[in-house]
Amino acid sequence: MSSKPSTIELVNKNLAKRYRAEARFKAYGIASIAFGLFCLVFLFTDIIGKGHTAFVQHYVQLEVEFDADALGINDVNNPDQLAAANYQGIVKKALRARFPDVRDRREKRVLYRLVSSGSGFDLRKMLEDDHSLLGQRLSVWLIADDDVDTYIKSLDDKAGAFTGRVKEKQQARLADLMAAGQIDARFNTVFFQNGDSREPEQAGIRGAIMGSLWTMMVTLLLSFPIGVAAAIYLEEYAPKNKWTDLIEVNINNLAAVPSIIFGLLGVAIFIGMFGMQRSLPLVGGLVLTLMTLPTIIISSRAAIKAVPPSIREAALGIGASKMQMILHHVLPLAMPGMLTGAIIGLAQALGETAPLLMIGMVAFIVDIPGGVADPATVLPVQIFLWSDSPERAFVERTSAAIMVLLGFLIVMNTLAVLLRNRLERRW
């Protein structure tokens, strides 16, 4: 007859079972974190691998003569003549002089694609800055065409060079230029100085960055004071009844509403009702203000609640009014949490695309916006536009723009953490 297990044996058996279950649960957690980190590393590796080459641009050296007759300039001090001059013509002339064996019209068209079709604008700027260049012959570095730039960058690729639209004769000419030291790789300042362009080698993100900054400025100036004022009223002044409960429920619900709904609201109110123009940072800022307000209100209310009641009671006990108590005691102590919530809300708004697409900020904008009333686009929308472009060179520029956007988001979130750790008081 077998004896029943003792109580200690049963307890030890159950403990061993619980320890195994706890170990499995811990392993699941570690595996989840590892999988998330793997996905994050894979994402960043893919983006950086495709986008790092966008920060380098190749240039072609040519002997260009600023011939007054070829340019069609009689008076160098006439801005209209400088603007209308045939700069691309002297670029083509320099290319023909560098490769005199090219005589066929079709071959000439292929030859002209060695340098960017926007090189004439660079020469125009040079002549506008220095009128003494007229009539001179000098060596200049011109931006290479996007197909040429992509081909040169792919020469060291293990999978083989990407020839694309660079044919054998063009490759031979490029080899000649490289052997003569007339092709140079430089940091791509154009990417940070120019606005959008249909030519990849001339496209930049400055217009999108300025549009984002103007939009974020409008969002910050409106959402932060309104959100803080709403949080103060709901926490310190509003009576506790069904109406305030309804307001609180709606604020929490608005924080979970899809962002495209706010875009539709902006189209209906700001554009449809008030007749504001599309594609303006002012309209974009108003729409993003509506979207970030719930986040700022919720975080500001949480920061106000975290202030100990003894602070309020002590202020009122020494004769301060309720407004003095809030402005001089509660608000300064709650400000770190409010600022953290505002920065996180702005970081979320900076990465939004859908509501801004709805209000027309998807327009092709070349000029750099100078204010909130100038047509503009924003960085996420610029990424969306480039990702849909067929040219291969836009792939690396899309990834590079994503890297810049991620850099802004990382800086903003790091700032929020630093502010919270530096200014937060523990009770």
Keywords:
427 residues; mainly alpha; MetI-like fold; 3 domains; 3-stranded antiparallel beta sheet; 18 helices; 65% helix; extended
Q: Please tell me how large the radius of gyration is.
A: 31 Å
* CATH architecture label name of the largest domain: Orthogonal Bundle
The CATH homologous superfamily of the largest domain corresponds to MetI-like
What portion of the residues fall into strands of 2 or more residues? Answer: 5-15%
Main sheet?
A: 3 strands, antiparallel
Kindly report the oligomeric state of this protein. Answer: single chain
Number of domains: 3
How far apart the termini lie comes to: 64 Å
Q: Helix and strand succession?
A: HEHHHHHEHHEHHHHHHHHHH
The rough form would be described as: extended
Number of helices: 18
> CATH topology of the largest domain, what is it called?
MetI-like fold
What does this structure look like?
- This protein is mainly α.
- It has 3 domains: 7-52; 54-202, no CATH class; 206-423, Orthogonal Bundle (MetI-like fold).
- It is 65% helix and 5% strand.
- The protein has helices spanning 7-51, 68-71, 79-84, 87-98, 105-112, 119-129, 146-153, 168-179, 190-193, 206-237, 242-254, 259-273, 281-305, 309-317, 322-350, 354-358, 379-387, 393-423; strands spanning 56-65, 137-143, 183-187.
- It has a 3-stranded antiparallel beta sheet with strand order 2-1-3.
- α10 packs antiparallel against α15 (322-350), α12 (259-273) crosses α13 (281-305) and α14 (309-317) runs antiparallel to α15.
- The mean pLDDT is 89.
